[in-house]
Amino acid sequence: MPVQQQSQLKQQLGGILAEQAVAIRQRRRLVEERWLKSRRIWMGIDLERRFTGADTDTTPYNIPAARRAAERTVVRGIKLLTPNVKWFEMSPLSEAADVNKANVDKYMWYVLQKIVKTRTNISQLVRSLVIYGLCHQKTGLVIRKGQVWPTQRVVDPFAFYIFPETVSSLSEAEVVFEDVLVSYEQYRTFMKRGLVDPLSSDDLTKPEWPYHLTERLAYQGITDPTANVADRIEQVGNQLHQVGAGFVSMSEMWVVREDRLYQVYIAWNTARGAKCVGFVESAYDEPLYRSTIHRSVPSETYTNSMLEDIAELSSLQNDQINKFQKAVDWEQGFVAALADRRHDSWKMKGQAVWLFGDDPRQAMQFMQPP
Question: What is the pTM of this model?
Answer without folding.
Answer: 0.77
